[in-house]
């Protein structure tokens, strides 16, 4: 839902200003930078979950719906990136990505605790399946990335930690969605994802292993294909390529954590 113009206009102006300042500062974008942005992606998920639960005042709740929550998160993360650059320039930290990651982690933890407390107050905290989803996604990522390193060594070497984050983010989204669809009875809002899940449910294997496995497979194969295509791009234009890969990681990691938090509070 698009917010009213008196929200949308200031958000876009603020985002343009943050981007312009970052463009002028020209901070480096490395694997560590991408890692530092992971908690910011997770923070954006917590903001949206709070909206789904109706935890915000009605006057500002629309700011945390889709797509405005992405802009709000980007503005806060961008401002923190600028502050991190200044902290590094002032000699207070040995790197830019460390304070950036710390700020993001603090925001994520505080809002996650707030959401879990709201669920706890309703007696609805259920950590079992979210924990299973995280464990399975982590194991699949480790096994698959080991295979990539053996069979496609150049892809693993060049994309490095950024590639792992991209793969884990989409694997988490796939696994958590499959668990929600097959076990918890959750519905899927994204039309393409819903079609894939329904197609998996029509296969003969659905009776034995459910229909979500097809979605998991696609969510693993697709990022691997993207990483393969981006290998030369990362080698030639590492800064731009990693920014693009960060966005691709966010498309998987954000919804994945969104699922985890929603399942966590029932």
How is this structure best described in words?
It is a single chain. The two termini are 24 Å apart. The longest helix has 30 residues, at 153-182. The protein folds into 2 domains: 1-123, no CATH class; 126-266, no CATH class. The chain is globular and about 60 Å long. With 266 residues, the chain is mainly alpha-helical. Helix content is 79%, strand content 0%.
Brief summary:
With 266 residues, the protein is mainly α. Helix content is 79%, strand content 0%.
Please count the beta strands (DSSP E, at least 2 residues each). Answer: 0
The sequence of SSEs as H and E is HHHHHHHHHH
Oligomer: single chain
- Report Rg: 19 Å
Structural class: mainly alpha
CA-CA gap between termini? 24 Å
Q: List the uncertain runs.
A: none
Biggest sheet layout: none
Give the count of structural domains. 2
| Helical content (DSSP H or I, runs of 4+) | over 70%
Number of helices: 10
